[in-house]
């Protein structure tokens, strides 16, 4: 081993040592910032003196406003809690509210989830859930729009 090899190894070890110290410092600063953000609700990006109000979901978990369950967006109705307890364990409530199906369609969807998505047997809750979904998220009958009345039509003139 030549003297230059030993010197090179010492320099590499020294460089590795400094890089390790810098990485450790960065990790400590990030851990401190994360602790500060989690314990106080503040981040380094907040304006000085700015306060944030953190509202815990548990406080309003069952609140219903204007016929809508605040936490999920589900319509108020008999069977609401059964739907929340059985449907939102696996997916967002929005996946339910965006769909409109007949009772048969909801039943087919439940059977599909049981066969392919590991949905458990709903037991006695199935009837309640189907009643809720088919009455609150059923297809809406839509016809043609109403005739436009009382519109001041005008003729376009060619230049």
Features:
159 residues, mainly alpha, Cytochrome Bc1 Complex, Chain D, domain 2, two-stranded antiparallel ribbon, 5 helices
3D architecture notes:
The structure is a single chain. The protein is mainly α. Among the domains are: 1-44; 75-136, Cytochrome Bc1 Complex, Chain D, domain 2. 48% of the residues lie in helices and 3% in strands. It is built from five helices and two strands. A two-stranded antiparallel sheet has the order 1-2. A hairpin with a 2-residue loop joins strand 1 (64-65) and strand 2 (68-69). The longest helix has 38 residues, at 3-40. The model has no long low-confidence stretch (mean pLDDT 85).
Instruction: Tell me the CATH topology of the domain at 75-136.
Output: Cytochrome Bc1 Complex, Chain D, domain 2
Helix and strand succession?
HEEHHHH
The assigned CATH architecture of the domain at 75-136 is Orthogonal Bundle
Helical residue percent band: 40-55%
List low-confidence stretches: none
Distance between the termini: 94 Å
Summed up, the helix count is: 5
CATH hierarchy, class of the domain at 75-136: Mainly Alpha
Q: Strand order, biggest sheet?
A: 1-2
Oligomer: single chain
Strand pairing plus helix content: what structural class?
mainly alpha
Average residue pLDDT? 85
State the total count of DSSP E strands.
Answer: 2
Radius of gyration: 31 Å
How is the biggest beta sheet arranged?
A: 2 strands, antiparallel
Percent strand equals under 5%
In one word, what is the shape?
A: elongated
Question: TL;DR?
Answer:
With 159 residues, the chain is mainly α. The chain contains five helices and two strands, in the order αββαααα. The protein has helices at 3-40, 80-87, 93-97, 103-116, 125-136, and strands at 64-65, 68-69.
């Amino acid at each position: 081993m030549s003297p230059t090899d030993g010197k090179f190894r010492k320099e590499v070890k020294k460089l590795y040592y400094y890089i390790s110290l810098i990485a450790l410092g960065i990790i400590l600063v990030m851990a401190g910032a994360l602790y500060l953000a989690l314990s106080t609700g503040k981040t380094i990006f907040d304006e000085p003196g700015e306060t944030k109000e953190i509202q815990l979901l548990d406080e309003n978990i069952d609140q219903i406003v204007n016929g809508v369950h605040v936490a999920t967006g589900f319509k108020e109705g008999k069977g609401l809690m059964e739907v929340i307890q059985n449907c939102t364990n696996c997916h967002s409530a929005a996946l339910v509210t965006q769909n409109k199906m007949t009772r048969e369609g909801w039943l087919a969807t439940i059977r599909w989830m049981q066969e392919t998505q590991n949905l458990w047997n709903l037991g006695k809750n199935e009837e309640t859930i189907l009643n809720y979904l088919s009455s609150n998220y059923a297809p809406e009958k839509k016809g043609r729009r109403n005739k436009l009345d009382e519109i001041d039509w005008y003729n376009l003139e060619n230049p």
